[in-house]
Write a structure and sequence with these properties.
It is built from 13 helices and no strands. It starts with a helix and ends with a helix. Helix 3 (67-99) packs parallel to helix 7, helix 3 (67-99) packs across helix 10 and helix 3 (67-99) packs across helix 12. The longest helix is centred in the first third of the chain and has 39 residues, at 5-43. Helices cover 76% and strands 0% of the residues. It folds into two domains: 1-43, no CATH class; 60-294, MetI-like fold (Orthogonal Bundle). By secondary structure, the chain is mainly α.
Length: 295
């Protein structure tokens, strides 16, 4: 079938129109993402911003030998490994609880959503009032004969931040899971009830399979938010907190302040690669377990 000259001209115009809409986005991505990424890669492989001598992987080797970086990395990994699973599991449990008929359901939901409306500075103030050496929690524990603890400088310092992280994020995660639970086909659950299936069987074989996309999204969101907890930690403890609260963002901020761009760039690249690997693994898991539901 021959295509007329008029149709060819029309298709050419459509391609030009499509390109005209696409180029601003490509330009924005190039200027704000690809170009800065190239600059970071360049700085990670030179000795300093003045001489610009190419050293390849030397900055990365020096970084892995740096005690501050190793401490910050270990603390960040430990915090995320504890806080993220708790944020996902507890939010799913709360959503399942609110799905059933319980008294004061609206008040319960409001209680967990209220932290979303509280500014970060106010959250920090609340935590200082509670966990300060002369704070409310230590005054309460004194009634049981327990000595005062300097929570932010003790072995429990990460626990205080994990509680803060959960308090801030459980409500939003819970709402996402409640929306996903509401979209599960009722006929499947009713059929399982007719077959006398247990609650555990319904949860594992029906609910969890339909929740897999939301579970994946909430996990990634919680992982990203676990890195954002630096804001609260910084306001609570400053640039150089007690060792257990010294996070990767502290290391990067302090390295930037010292104008050590090559070390900062190397750390940023390592952090980027680790995040890509984790999210890629989550994509593979979600694709494997969510495929039969989508089909």
């Amino acid at each position: 079938m021959k295509i007329s000259k008029k149709e060819l001209t029309l298709k050419h115009k459509e391609r030009l129109a499509g390109s005209a809409f696409l180029w601003p986005s490509l330009l924005g991505v190039s200027v704000f993402f690809i170009l800065p990424m190239g600059v970071v890669c360049y700085y990670a492989m030179i000795d300093n911003p003045i001489s610009h001598n190419f050293v390849f992987l030397k900055n990365f080797i020096n970084l892995f030998q740096n005690n501050a970086f190793k401490t910050a990395s270990l603390n960040t990994i430990t915090f995320s490994a504890v806080a993220v699973p708790l944020a996902v599991i507890l939010a799913l449990g709360l959503a399942s609880l609110l799905e059933s008929r319980i008294p004061l359901k609206s008040q319960f939901r409001t209680f967990f959503l209220s932290p979303l409306m509280v500014p970060v500075a106010s959250v920090v103030l609340i935590w200082q009032v509670i966990f300060h050496y002369n704070g409310a929690l230590n005054d309460f524990l004194l009634n049981f004969g327990i000595d005062k603890i300097d929570w932010f400088k003790s072995a429990y310092n990460q626990l205080t931040v994990v509680i803060l992280f959960l308090w801030k994020n459980l409500g939003y995660n819970m709402i996402l899971f409640m929306a996903a639970l509401a979209n599960i086909p009722r006929d499947l659950l009713e059929m399982a009830e007719l077959e006398c299936a247990s609650r555990w069987f319904k949860f594992i074989h029906i609910k969890l399979r339909y929740l897999s996309p939301t579970l994946f999204f909430v996990t990634i969101l919680s992982l990203i938010n676990s890195f954002k907890v630096f804001r609260e930690v910084y306001l609570l403890t400053g640039d150089y907190p007690y060792e257990g609260l010294y996070l990767l963002q502290h290391f990067m901020n302090n390295t930037f302040r010292a104008l050590d761009y090559q070390k900062l760039s190397a750390a940023a690249l390592i952090m980027f690669i680790v995040m890509v690997l984790i999210i890629g693994l989550l994509f593979i898991i979600e694709d494997r377990f969510g495929k039969d539901v989508e089909g």
